[in-house]
Amino acid sequence: MSFEELGLSAPVLQAVTEKGYTTPTPIQEKAIPIVLMGRDILGCAQTGTGKTASFVLPMIDILAEGRAKARMPRSLILEPTRELAAQVAENFEIYGKNNKLNMALLIGGVSFPDQERALEKGADVLIATPGRLLDHFERGGILLNDVKILVIDEADRMLDMGFIPDVERIVSLLPKIRQTLFFSATMPPEIKRLADRFLSNPKEVTVSRPASANANVVQGLVVVQDDQKRDALLALIKSQEVKNAIVFCNRKRDVATLHTTLKKQGLKAGALHGDMSQPARMETLEKFKSGEIQILVASDVAARGLDVQDMSHVFNYDVPFSPEDYVHRIGRTGRAGKTGHSFTLATPSEGDLIDAIQKLINTEIPKVEVPGMDAAALEAGDGRRRGRGGRRGGRSSGGAPERGRGPRREPRENRQPRGEQPAESAPIEAQASAASPESQPEARAPREPRAPREPRADRPPRERRPEQRESRGERRPERSSEHRSERRPERHHDRDDGNSPVGLGDHVPAFLARR
Which of 123, 230, 264, 288 gets the most CB atoms within 10 Å of its CB? Predict the structure, then answer.
């Protein structure tokens, strides 16, 4: 099937042809006609299979007619990261160059005045991260009651980053009647429940098993000791024909350290992580895409949305803690039907993490030996993945109890009575003395039973209080008017002469009762 058979307009087809694409991917082939029909979509496909174009291309045709008002966008695309949002904005510029559509990009790290000016012009397409979008909304700079199309992209990444409450709030601000496109690379139960809430009679489009590795990526596993990982990485880079590559680390400080090491080895390396400013991140990405940087050392901020043509290799310097992150990392290569290579460096103690990855992708990662280095073996896992602190089962690697916890208490039935000591733990002399007949205490005579207490003298019955009589149904004797007058002297405000203050009862201040 070709793009002409999908029902796209001539301006969009011309832009696709100029980009060099002739055949749609499976997700594009199935999703584009459904989007053009105006139906909701629940799309699930591997990373790198063209999900972005599957909603960008039909949205351009749908939005070609009409014009947006100031601060009232006609469509909204939510992305989890700045890099992915910028990537989608770039696709709109490429495929929508033959259409007169205004686009606004709301991401962090960019000044508010520039984004506010873009909103004032009227945005047919609004691409935003949840946090920055809510910032503009709370400032009164944007209205969301004219959105006709909503796209929630990389929903599983939204869940991992904690953006789901923000997404739920944004969806509550949108019109009830709209078209919603929901895309995710994986489909955990939490994402499925969100899709059921946001979508109305959706058409489910799944082109591959969720969380499966791309078949175009040749995978490899290298098991070495922790102090040999850098040497193994350098040996792999030198032995492979690396055109350009991303080296993923779990921690930001490891990104900086490894970046310095690669630069000392004469490699054209760059660094990318979440603590960098947005201009620095965009500049690094542009250098990497242009070829000025060959090796990009990055955290998982680059695991999604980074689309570099013909990227040849991905190196996992650290095994990801989440198996889903492994799928997204290696999905940066082998894109658009081309072959890519990925290598994962693991230590023997990370057998649990490797087992979790292989179980998710339903494939055993082939082991690769590095020339000149001894290969190690993975330790057998115990069924529980090891966390960031390297602990298993709630105990530290040294075998000591966790900090803040006391010694483990024995079950109640095994405890000895207070003041007694078990026989096996008592001193030998004490046991011997306890066994000798001389040391045994004399038997005590049984106690004589106590004499019964003498009955108390009869007391006269105590007279009940009036309230007690009343509670038991007895009437309180009425007092005479003389008695009431003695107990309650007449006050000024009790007189009905029209001069006493009204509404204060018996508690009238003295200055109000004066005449």
Answer: 123
Which residue(s) pair with 77 in the sheet? 127, 151
Q: What is the CA radius of gyration of the chain?
A: 39
Residue ranges of E strands in 57-211: 75-78, 103-106, 125-128, 149-152, 179-184, 203-206
Asked if 352 and 381 touch (Cβ cutoff 8 Å), the reply is yes
Q: Which residues contact 160 (CB under 8 A, 6 or more apart)?
A: 322, 324
131 CB-near residues (< 8 Å, 6+ apart): 108, 163, 166
Cβ burial of 141 (10 Å; 0-12, 13-18, 19+) is middle
Q: What is the pLDDT of residue 300?
A: 81
Q: Which two tokens mark 447?
A: 């106690």
Q: What is the pLDDT, as a whole number, of residue 311?
A: 86
User: Which residues, 6+ apart, have CB-to-CB distance to 318 below 8 Å?
Assistant: 248, 249, 250, 251, 254, 345
Residues paired with residue 219 on neighbouring β-strands, in sequence order: 342
What pLDDT score was predicted for residue 501? 52
User: What is the C-alpha to C-alpha distance for residues 388 and 401, in angstroms, rounded to an integer?
Assistant: 17
Measure the CA–CA gap between 395 and 287, rounded to whole angstroms. 45
Q: By 3-state DSSP, what share of the chain in percent is helix, strand and coil, each rounded to 5?
A: 35, 15, 50
Taking a C-beta distance cutoff of 8 angstroms, is the pair 296, 255 a contact?
A: no
Cα distance between residue 164 and residue 280, in whole Å? 28
Q: What is the pLDDT of residue 506?
A: 61
For the segment 107-125, what is each residue's pLDDT rounded down to a tens digit?
988 889 999 999 999 999 9
Please name every residue paired with 221 in a beta bridge, in sequence order, or none if there are none. 344, 367
Q: What confidence score (pLDDT) does residue 333 get?
A: 86
Contact 44, 22 (CB under 8 A): no
Could you give the CA distance from residue 375 to residue 365 in angstroms, rounded to a whole number?
15
Q: Which amino acid, residue 20?
A: G
CB–CB of 151/78 below 8 Å? yes
In order of start, what are the domains of the chain with their CATH numbers?
3-206 (3.40.50.300), 217-361 (3.40.50.300)
181 contacts 45 by C-beta, under 8 angstroms: no
